[in-house]
Amino acid sequence: MNVNVEIPKECEALFLRYAREQNKSINELLNERIMEFMEEIEDLQDALQARQERESGDKGKSWQDIKQELNL
How many distinct structural domains can be found in the chain? Predict the structure, then answer.
């Protein structure tokens, strides 16, 4: 998907400098940051769901159950 985004010149300069420092293209850098942002959104949604479940009386899983699921 192609998307055009207009950003302030000072932000552009920061992105360009950081991309050069990391030896990455602007495209690579932005794709990485977008994926990180989406992962943060998923984490937040999971945390909010867990909080809602806890507030509705769900006790969650025991440490023993978690260890067993992860084969630890």
Answer: 1
